[in-house]
Amino acid sequence: MNPRGTSSFLIPCLLHLKTPFWDLHLTLHPCPLSCPQLFPLPPRPLPFLQLLPRPLPPPRLLLQPRPNSPLGRRRRHLLVSACGGLRTQKALPLSNPPFFPSVLSIARSSTGPYLYNWKTHNPSFSQDPQALTSLIKSILLTHQPTWDDCQQLLQVLLNTEERQQVLLEARKNVPGPGGLPTQLPNKIDEGFPLTRPDWDYETAPGWESLQIYRQALLVGLKGAGKRPTNLAKVRTITQERDESPAAFMERLLEGFQIYTPLDPEALEHKATVAMAFIDQAALNIKGKLQRLDGIQTYRLQELVKEAEKVYNKRETPEEREARLAKEQIEREDRKNRVKDKHLTKILAAVVREKGPGREGEKRRRPAGPRVFASWQPPLCWSRTLLS
Description:
Elements: E1 10-12, E2 22-24, E3 26-28, E4 49-51, H1 70-83, H2 103-106, H3 108-120, H4 129-142, H5 147-157, H6 160-172, H7 185-191, H8 204-225, H9 231-235, H10 245-259, H11 270-279, H12 283-290, H13 300-312, H14 317-354, H15 369-373, H16 379-386
């Protein structure tokens, strides 16, 4: 009984839902005076009810990448842990590599829009072959595309003329038995077929044929991206004001690959690339590199390192603005001094023309011979002199 003499009632309330079990708690709450009596007080408390947890859904199988990649090992470990134990796996011999399905084949619907988006927001193969070649190279290394996927790449990213040129250059560089490009038509058709081959990628010969096709395709992209020799285009590649020496060296190497038949990474062409890097660098970096002793013995990496020292000591935008403001003030001061000097000369000339005397006083004009020639003596003077 409470102080007012009113009876209290039990009202079941669900307070918390706790994991891994749901607990149903019953508490006593005093009922207000106006609350009608719902049920009498039970003789003994109700027991706690424990609800069993919901069974976990089966683990969702995710698209597994290549088993050799770190991401594949991580996902496989999580999947095995979720399933509650280690599953038995079938070991394959080294001579028979397993078939890894292509990501492009599985997720073709998601890769197509990405390729079209890249083509829309980037220059074409004719304008910048290096960028497109790098993209296709990364796809060949990471996604391991099949023959059909390679055709999709060429169809989306290249136009008809560019695609024919790439295929022609690739068929010229199909490796033969000794590793050199072969000239046999049957070997060319076997290594780089133009129609869909019947390669079985689950066997070693099929997988090896696919690898040869990818290598020839990559060589064909590089060969088709080369343009006629034009050293003037290479000389126009100069270092920009806010461009680092490493980025400038990369652009210069790409220019040599596109506009010249030279291989800039070959040892016999290192001196040509080094001289172009020094001559076309920024003025402060060029002066520093030209003053180095034994510059002929420097490698390209060492030249870039020396250029980085000068580049890192360049003035900040705030320092540059302060320097330009100071130079502007000095130029204005020089102009003012020159004007003052000219005004001083003009005033000195005016003073010399006026001569000595008071300022503003009129000088008396001297009498000339005409004044005396018009004067005659009086008549009385002449009579006196005659008498």
